[in-house]
Amino acid sequence: xxxxxxxxxxxxxxxxxxxxxxxxxxxxxxxxGNPRTRFLAADDLLDRTKATRLRRALEESLADKLExxxxxxxxxxxxxxxxxxxxxxxxxxxxxxIYFESRREPGxxxxxxxxxxxxxxxxxxxxxxxxLAGRKLASGWGLQVLxxxxxxxxxxxxxxxxxxxxxxxxxxxxxxxxxSPAVAHQWLVYSRAGHFSEIVSVARPxxxxxxxxxxxxxxxxxxxxxxxxxxxxxxxxLYR
Length: 240
Hints:
This protein has 240 residues and is an alpha+beta fold. It has helices at 16-23, 48-62, 76-79, 108-114, 116-120, 123-133; strands at 39-42, 67-71, 93-99, 142-148, 153-157, 171-179, 183-185, 187-192, 195-201, 207-213, 217-219, 223-224, 230-238. Strand 8 (187-192) and strand 9 (195-201) form a beta hairpin.
């Protein structure tokens, strides 16, 4: 049975300010239409009480259904070097996730049963992303769920997919970030003018972040008690 903490429509998770995004009257509408704006974050677009209920439902029903992402720094990134300052670092990360490429992926059916997939597939979710992007986005968007625990992170990466004809020109990611009170801090660091000079907290109980990809960024290790967790509900939208 669908959990009542998870609305059928994403719109029902929004605050009054968030609904202004859908109606086109919020200052954030269209900001990602500017190629110079690659990232935005806001913590007043989701209803905090509803977001807390959602996070608790995810923790109760899905925490043991995720698979582990474990991509450490390869030893050869040091010991195979032949020239000073010639180091190259592939994307590294540690977290837990649900992928949605196939219903046979671990966690997909429990997420469907919970009602999470229905909310993330709702038309108001795409409409919200379109409002921030300032343009129409394709249907059939990608989904992912992430759970960061203590020490989990995502190393520097740019999310560029030059081999994918539909994504190589750029795309939009929309994240709903739901951090538990036990999280002390976690930061998103991103580049501006070629330097990792921008930083924003993602350790918020009810935050929205949106990305105009590709660009360089990374997520610092989550710091908190053993019970600390940050859930990320992620939609990837291609341009129409």
